[in-house]
Structures are given as structure tokens and as C-alpha cells.
Amino acid sequence: MASTLRIANGRVYDPANGLDGVVQDICIQDGRIVAAVPAGTKTVDARGMVVMPGGVDIHCHIAGSKVNMARKLQPEDHRHDVHLRTRVTRSGTGGTVPSTFATGYRYAALGYTAAMEAAVTPLGARSTLEELQDTPVIDKGFFVLVGNNVLLFRLLQEGRLEEFRHTLAWWISATKAYAPKLVNPGVDAMWKGERNANITTLDQKIGPFDLTPRKVIGAFIQAAEDLGLPHPVHIHCNNLGHSGNYETTLETMRIADGRRVHITHVQFHSYGSVAGKTTDNPTSKAREIADYVNTHPNISADVGAVMFGRSTSMTADAPLAYMLRRFGSHKWINADSENESGCGILPFTYQDKVYTNALQWAIGLELFLRSEDPWRMVFSTDHPNGGSFMSYPKLIRLLMDREFRKEEMAKVNQKAIDNSGLRECQEREYSLFEIAIITRAGPARLLGLTAKGHLGVGADADITIYEEDADKEKMFSTPRYVIKEGTLVIEDHEFRADVEGRVFHVMPDYDPGIEQVIQPFFEDFYTIQFANYPVDLHYLHRHQAVPTAHQTAAAAPAADA
Amino acid sequence: MSDDNTRTVTDATCTFCGCVCDDITLSVDVAQHKITKSQNACVLGKAWFEEHGIEERPFALIGGREATTEEGVEEAARILAEARYPIIYGLSDTTCEAQRVAVSIADMIGGNLDTTTSVCHGPTGMAFQNLGESTASLGEIKNRADLIIFWGGNPAEAHPRLFTRYAVTPKGMYTPNGRKDRTVALVDVRRTASTPVADIFLQVKPGSDFEVLWSLRALVKGRKVDASIEQRTGISLAVLEDLVARMKRCQFGALLFGMGLTMTRGRHFNAGALLALATDLNEFTHFVAAPVRGHGNVTGADNVVSWQTGFPFGVNFSRGYPRFNPGEWTTADLLARGEADAAMILASDPASNFSRPAIEHLKRIPVITLDPKTSLTSQLARVAFTTATYGINVPGTVYRMDNVPISLRPAFESPYPSDHQVLTAIRERVRALLGGNRTPAGSPLAAVAT
Amino acid sequence: MPEKMILIGGRSKRQGTALCAGKTGAEYLDVSTTLEMNVEDMARLGLKADSRVRLRTPSGETILRCKGRETKDLPKGLLFMAYGPASSQLMAGDTAGSGMPLSKNLQVEVEPVGPDEAPGE
Q1: pLDDT, tens digit, for every residue of A245-286?
Q2: Cα dihedral A299→A305→A310→A313 (10° resolution)
Q3: What is the pLDDT of residues A208-217, one digit of tens each?
Q4: Reduced 3-state DSSP string for A351-373
Q5: Closest CB from C6, C21, C99 relative to B330
Q6: Beta-strand (E) ranges in C2-105?
Q7: What ipTM was estimated for this complex?
Q8: Chain CA centroid to CA A157, Å
Q9: Which chains touch A (3 or more CB pairs under 8 A)?
């Protein structure tokens, strides 16, 4: 018996299908959107309400070794924010790094139905997938850290580009990842091998390798394009957080030279410097960054906005976390993964009266308000780095409500506001249609998830229904209904069911002979057997492999050729 | 070399200790349900693999009477559903898959959940919560560490392959000559089988680890330490200064520490002092620290309990959400105070290693055990399940001491169910008895049901 | 008058292998009731290899079998034994709010007893 549901008379915001507040019914059968359902189908009366696809978070940190270390690190952050169990849902704890169950339920309770974990060491892929299985309701996937991988560096340095590409494809397949992620490319060799040094320019030599960050970045962009990945290389640029880093960011985008690339948490990479000073007093270069993105359709970005209050910095950029220790944290984690990555973690509080923090907050808003293409400058706080995903409703209000934004601007460090360009663009307000793009349709399209982020026939029936409210923070904090693959998970603001989402991953093609290149490296430099390294499918439970462009073309009917 | 009855399993994983070596080649006599050879395993690993045959034991014992697994499940579920203060303890010698179910039962019944971490590196976990840590996977130590300091442990007897596979002799990327490229120091109160491996041995007086560590921190920071430190600790100022010079000079240093720090006076202060020392040294060079963990999957238990609750051990669910408080919800104290009215113990044997008052209380309450072998705890249990052995009969995931997850490759099938299977059956039966998760009395959420 | 010494509990290879064979086996009983003591301390107390001693703490007591160690390996006044049911008899239930009972660096009273006393009792 088919399970069906009708959402009747809601105002539908479905940008991918051009619907901007059109009142119409949405029909659901067996977890997908269909054109019609039989009369007498169970109906949700959405009259006067706003209907959107479920939210899609393109970049957050919710599962895996570093997230779990950050969870263990902060009992004090869990104690003040507990998550009660119900008859049907598990208990947990919140704070900036919630337990897995609380993470899934809380995303769902904000109307989000998919989220991508953005930085996983290959060695930690299994634990990430175990945690993701315990993260209920939402669909998920992860980006695998490859930008400091020693074997890939060796192949690149020897000019073995084809083997480099096959090895990258092997690594994505072996870990069941969704996309390749670069974090401060080259940093590991400096941090681990040269007494905690860092990378400072795109053209410096990377430790013992005959390579530069520029060369590494270019090679990954090309390999991802050649593999036809659904989401391109996802880059955390060099020099994150340093004054004057916007030039590195612009230069990184120029390396792409027309090829697709995604620049993540770009707010953290949009800082100028007061002439001659690089250590403090950043200035805003949001205009320069936004202008470049606006005029280069091959570039996409998520903002990585900063919200005031507690956050947890967690990053594969180990020297960054070490630098942030200067700002008063008593706790600090460094965690090196053999041949693959580094990691730094610390609790951090963004304070509205502190110049740098207020400037970061302003730059995040500026990037949104200067963006001319919401499909390519999408929503994120780099949870929990810039702030928890629980602050999304407030950030939405800041974008939609200029009076509220002006009130908030008046409360923060005024020198920072003066030094930002926020006043120049303060009259703009995001519409519901644009919000639907930056929080759903845009991220889904950038990820290449064709059944997500829209409500057309064939799409997954992941739907959020909000009661309209002048206070957009309130509206987006408490959706009335949340539907995941056709199941009413939240009804009248309460959980009615506990469901398991899917893991999305990519299995790019590679020459199996490449294992002859990889295995000897493992035997010499890893401490886990080569045969025990790849993650098998049983760690994925509910899952879906998203095809590469080549796999889609190969599966298409011959008549197309 | 192999016939029909002999099966070879390559790249099998040993779960005896926290080294979790995954390079073992097993020869299995299928008919006899026995591992006849375990190549690459250390003496402990060999005993682990070769002593775990299938013993003729009842599937379950209920009050000493032989019973089926199903009857045991029924009785166990009844005990857990009826108890007002049930506790679940152990978890370290089983798969993460089973651990996840164990935590879910504790959540469902509003019980108390604790693991053997609380009596192992629990103090290290508390120190970590205060300070964080600079750490590394074992492969990075193999590839890079040119100075290794062992503190308060005897790996030669407790983690025999730590020296040969990860930390002292192996050749790595930047340590191509293996042992020759490393300086090894060892700190302990007595000479052990591990002592000969060290270039430098510091024999400290019992109970003075904290003072030694704090003096090293002071010297690293350029402060003055009085020569009287030698009377207090047994270590001369000159020896401490030499060690500090080496620590600052090395390219990549590693401090690996055992329960010699956590089970003695100072407990989490000792572990914290060591973690702080490693952190301080990062002003000068790259330096990491790591606890050398005991049982095969105790690290997995820490991870599972943390991701499900936010806290690593000693978690109480009675208010409808996880609370953490060592000393209150850690099992050693809780039982010694005579609390808990039912206990489910899996993959551990508190009746052989807890204090006398704790064991006396276990004898007073209904106890459920899951264990492949008879233990002192299973002998006092109301319901004792025989389960299959993880890694030998049961697949699944375990975490090495450095948080690296590894999949198991079982050698032969057991007639007994896995911990995961028994726990899942108990959970479903408890769910039926309670009608879903137990919600705290008076909670508005109690009304929310499907 | 019983003498006061410091007891260190710990693991040993033999304890580990005996554990796999089974905790109800003779080997495990033997390894978990063996007490290592400095040879000079033993001589002073009139103890030989395999002599029985009683260890006592405010929490409990147990009978163990002695084994000698040279001073360079085990200083005078220090004792070592493998963890097990016997060492647990000496542990306090209180953990000072840490969850971890002390099982190393325990102050114990040592008293020679006759050869008829069975170890582990």
C-alpha cells in the first residue's frame, strides 16, 4: 500500500522550480513528490503557512573524531543545555557541540533535513559514519581531508598526475566520502615537521616537498574536474583568520581559472590589514571578495558567518587553533593523524564589544548583502566555528529585517562597524525566496544533490512548513511541520516519529591497478593494514551513491550519443 | 598447506589490549572451533586467540538453572524494566555496535551507564576535560617521534607490541633507522621488563610523579627549581634539566603514560600535569602525549558514550537526560555506597577487581552478565548469558588507544549469540514492557506519544 | 608488630595469559596471589621464597605468597602484585570523588603467617 500525503494550500517557496510564494498543493507518495495523490489522502492544512524544501547545510562539523574530541572536552557546555528524551526520541546534550542524537533532532526542529560534515580524516571515516548513523532524521555525508595527504603530495611532486587522480578517486571511494576537502594545503608538513610552523604564502615551498600550495590547489581542482565529481574541491584557503588574507583568497580563486571550485567559510578569508601590520587589526575586504565571486560563475562559496556568543573552533588547520589560544582559552587540543591531517580544537567566545569579533560579524553580513547571486553565496556559520547551527534563525532575521539589523549593529563595537562596509549595503533585505535559495536550493545545487532542495516531481519529500511571523527568528526557530521522505516527523511542533536519514557518497571510477602504488606506502608508513583501511558498505546503512558526470553519461541511453 | 578443515584469516585484529594490532594471521581448525596459530601476535595476543575456543556452557543461567537465551532475555528485561535504579557497567571488551545498544538501553530505562574507563584512564579523561591535549595517532609517532618518554607504565608486559610496532623500534618516514633515530626515556617507581628499552631511566619515589612533572614544567618555562627536589622525588635537578633540554631540542616528542599516574595519589592532577607539560613544550617544538589504554575496546566505549551523551563515562539518565559526575555515577563508588537495585554487567568483571563493599552490594541485587567465559561476576549473577567473543567469533568495530577505528575479522562462528544480539533482544523486550522510552514522572513530554 | 610498606598493583604478562585461559583456573589464582618483595626485606622478616604473608589495609586483608626481587629492581619497602581478586580485598570503596579507587601506592601492613594459610583467603 502506497503511503501518501497532501500538503494543502500552503504558500510554496521553491526557487529551483520558480515558485515564489505560489499557493498550491504538494503531493507525496512513498517518500517522493508526485503530481497527484488520490482523493481522501491524509492532508496537512498549510493554509496561511510557508512551505519550503527541507534545509540543506553545505558545511558544518557534526560527526567524527575531531567533533567527538570537542564534545568530550566540554562537559560544562553540555550541562546548561540538556536534551530530554521523549517516548519516541533519544536524550542527549547540547551546547556548541551537541551529542549525535541532539544534533539530528535539533537540525530537524529547525526545518533542516540534510547536513554535510565538512572535514573528516580518512582514518576517521569509520567513526564519522558510526556517529552519522546515530544522527537521526537528517540526510548526511562528509568531505574527506586530502589537502595534506603525503602520498598524494609525493605523486604530485613526481609529476605522476594520472596516478594522483586515480589515488584521489580511490581515497574518496575507500572512505565513502562525498567530496574532496583541502584545508590550508601544505600546513601539515610545516606544523608537524618544522616545529609548529605554518604556511604563509601560496608560493612557498612545503617543508620537504618540492611543491607549493599553488601547485597543490591547481592539481586538486583539475583532478576533481576530470573525475566529474558532483561537488568540486571544497577549499579552506591558506591563511585563515590572518589580517590581509583576502589576497590569498583572491589568488586561490584565480588558480581555478574558470574551473569549478567551492571556497568555504569565506568570511574568515576576507580580511584586509592596516598598512604594514599583519598580526592584528583586520579590516573588511568583503567588497573585493564578493565582487570576485559575483563576476566569476565558476566560483561558489558559503559565508561562514560569525554569531556572538560561545562557539567551538575545530579545524584541520592546527596552527590556527594554536594561534587562537592567545585569546584566553584554557583548553586546547592538537591531534595529528598519520600521513593525512592535523587538527586543532578549542572553545572560543565571540564578543560583540571586541573589535575583531564585531568586524567578523559585520563581514559575514556584508558578504551576504553584497552577493548578487544567492545560488553561489550560500548560508553557513561553519557550525560550530562561527556559531552554532542553533543561531541560524537569528542570522536569517539579520538578513531579512533591516531594522533589526540596525538595532544589532548599534550594540556592537562601533569602530568595527565604521571600518566595515556594512553601512553601504544596510538597506538590502533578503526575501523568503532568497532565503529559500541560500539555505536550501543553492546548497543542494552546489552539492549536486538533484533530489534535494526543491519540491518538483521526483524530489525527495523533505519539506518544512513554517507559520508566518513578522519576527523571522521566531518563524524559522519553530516550524509547525517537518516532513522527511514523506514521514511527518514533527507535527504541531512535537516529534511524532524517529527516522534514519541517508548517507550520500560518491564512488568515482579509478584504475584498480592504482592499489599497487598505494599499498607499499601503507606498509611503510601507516599503522593499519592496507586491507583493513577501506570502509565497507555496512557502515553506511541507509545510503545512496551519487554518480559522477562520467557515471551519469555512461548510464544514459545510447540515443543521446 | 591448508586443507578443508584449516582456514587462514589474514589481517585479523587482536583485541586483547589497546594496541589493537590488525596484522595477525590466524590458522583456524574449523571443526575444533580453535585457533591453532596466531602469527605476529605477542604472547598476550597468542593467549587471547588460542585460549578462546568454544566451551560447553549453557546459553544462559537463571539463578544457576540452565536456560535458553530467550528465557534469559525475558528475565533480564523484566529486571531492568522493574528496577528503580538500574545500572549498566563494563563495555570495554565488546564491539562499538554492542556498546551503542547498551547506552540506548540505559537511556530508555533512565538508568546509570558507566564503563571500565572510570577505573582505568578515567582520571585522564577528567584531566583532558580541564586542559585538552596535544596528541597524535600511533603512526605519526612511528613516522616522526625522535624522543619518546614512557611514564608510569610497563608496556613490555601490558602492551608488548607498543615498542616494536609503534613507538621504539619501527622505521618510519622521518625515523628511517628505527631505534637509532630515537631517544627513549622511561619513568617508573620500579624496574620492570620495560626498563631495558630505555636510554634514560628515572626511578621516582612512589607518589611523587606530580612533583616531578611540575618541576619539569617549571624548568621548561625557565623557572628555578630547588635542588631539594631530589630528596622529595628521588630525581636530581641535573637529571631533570637534562631531560628538559632534550625535550626542547627534539623535532617531535611524545609522552606515553600509563595507570602509574592515574591509579595513584594525585590521579587526574598527575595526568593533567603530564598533558600540560606536553602542551607547554609546543612553544618550542612539536610535542604530543597519549594515554596507553588497556582493554581492547575501552577507547571505543569512551567514544560511543561521548557521541551519544556528550560525556565519556559515569553518565546518569534518571532525569531524562544525560548527567555526568565522577564519584557520584561512577560504578566503583556507587556500588560501594550500596546504591543501585539492579545491574547489567557486560564485558567486564567487577567482582574480581572492585572493592569489597562494592562486591558485597553486587551480591545483594539482581545482576545480569554477558560474558564468553565464567567470571567471578557471572558466578554471582541472577542471569548469566554466554556470548560469543568479539574479534574471534563476532565482527564489528573497535577503537585503538589513539582513537583509530578498526574493523574485526572473525575466525570462526560461535554457537552463542553476540553481545549485540543479546542486548538488542533485551532492548526490544524492555521497550515492549515500558511502551517506549521511560519518561520522567511529571514530564510534559510523557504525554507525547505516537 | 606488622611492618608498613607500599604496595603497587599492576599488570603482568603471566596475568594476561592466565586471564585468557580463565579466571577460575589454577594459573590465574597463582599469579594473582603472588607478592613481589625486596630480598633484603624478606630476609629481615625471615621470609623465604613461597613464604606466606598477610597484607592488611583499613579496607581488608589477604594472604599472599612471596617472591624475591633484587634491590635495583624493587626498592626496599616497596611491594608489587598483579591485579586480581586478592588485590581488590585491599582497596577502599571511596574514590575521593574521582571514580577511581587507589590501587597503586597503597600503604599496607605486612605480617608473616604460617605455611598452612592458603593464598587468596
Answers
A1: 999 999 999 999 999 999 999 999 999 997 666 556 899 999
A2: 20
A3: 999 999 999 9
A4: CCCCHHHHHHHHHHHHHHHHCCC
A5: C99
A6: 3-10, 34-38, 52-57, 60-69, 78-82
A7: 0.96
A8: 30
A9: B
